[in-house]
Every structure is written in C-alpha cells, then in structure tokens.
Amino acid sequence: DQQVKQNSPSLSVQEGRISILNCDYTNSMFDYFLWYKKYPAEGPTFLISISSIKDKNEDGRFTVFLNKSAKHLSLHIVPSQPGDSAVYFCAASSNTGNQFYFGTGTSLTVIP
Amino acid sequence: EPEVTQTPSHQVTQMGQEVILRCVPISNHLYFYWYRQILGQKVEFLVSFYNNEISEKSEIFDDQFSVERPDGSNFTLKIRSTKLEDSAMYFCASSELVRRSGTQYFGPGTRLLVL
Q1: Mind telling me how many Å the CA of B41 is from chain A's nearest CA?
Q2: What does the pLDDT read at residue B100?
Q3: Chain B contacts of A36, Cβ < 8 Å?
Q4: What is the pLDDT of residues B3-42, one digit of tens each?
Q5: B16 to chain A, minimum CA–CA distance in Å?
Q6: CA A55/CA A74 separation, integer angstroms
C-alpha cells in the first residue's frame, strides 16, 4: 500500500547545480506535505512543508512545489551543496488523522 | 537546541523476548509518535500518543505493541513477544502541536535486531 512514492532511489548532482527530488501520491485526501532529510545514524530532520492551499513554498535554498491535479510534489535545492548529501523523504497526511505516510526516500549525492 | 533522544541505539534480542525501547521527547512537546523503518523500506507510522492515551495507530501496531509514558519525561514502546519481522529501525518523534502546524522532531532511532 504505497500511498506516497519516490520513484528515484538515488540522484547525483554537481555542486552549485539544482537538485530536483520528486514525489507522487495516490490519496486525494492528502492535504499536507513535508520533506525530511536524513543523514546516516540520525533520525529524519524536518526540512520544509506545504499545505494543499498553496502550490509553492520557499525557504532559502529549498523550494517545494505542489501540483494537486497531478498528485505530485517536488523539492528543489539550489544551489546544491555537498552538505546536502543525504536521504530525502517526502511525507503526506490528510485531515482525517495525524498519521504521516512516508515515501521510500531518495538518496542525494552532491559532487564537489 | 532541544532534541529527542532514544535508548538504546542498538538492541539485539531473541525471538519471543520482550523489548522496551525508550525515548525522551522534547520537554515542552505534547504529542509523541513511534515510527519504524525496515531496512531498505519506507518509514512507517506506528502510533501517536497524546494526553496519556493513544490517539491514532496503524495496522502494524497490533496487540504485541504497547506504549506508555511512565513519568514526565520518558515515552516507551514495548514489543511483548518479538518476531523476526520486527527487526527494524524504530524512531520516536515528538511535536509541540498536532500534525499540521506542529513539526515532528525525530530521535536518532533504535536499531532492533531479532534473531
């Protein structure tokens, strides 16, 4: 039951370039979306969120875009830095509960 | 900066044994969660806890699992009789507010291995 999908298990990007991480969801009841970053041996760290009433949210180098009709969201990191190398999870929830559904993660490597 | 802590970092146990995973949430947070991640798979929600009771649980959280806030600081997850498939990384999280406006802060996890 994969309600949230991250179809790219890994991504490599040159330092300074843009990283684009993608996430798709199937449940039309989802109305709140988050991105988490995870380093090895650490728990996920909140990065950025977006509510379904918006289609874009920006925080410094990180921007999340939401396309509700396509049930798709993406995280843009620009410019990418080597310290951004981590596993990125997208997560979603609906207003019917406080459970988050996570994707399987995308491992980002930023090459110096 | 306040953080969620978890102990132990690693636990190895025999199938059928009981394990207790411990978490100390951030002190002013009111909502607590357990998630697990089986190796190579997605992070899965187990349970949320508020006001000394379970507020939501997933299908994974069956009768073998229980949670407790035994005192003002700890939040525990007990697995009564472990199975091989319980081997996973278990993450505790806490938030000041529920879900939407409350970012969930995660602990570093406990890696549980059931033999």
Answers
A1: 6
A2: 57
A3: 106
A4: 999 999 999 999 999 999 999 999 889 899 999 999 888 8
A5: 27
A6: 10
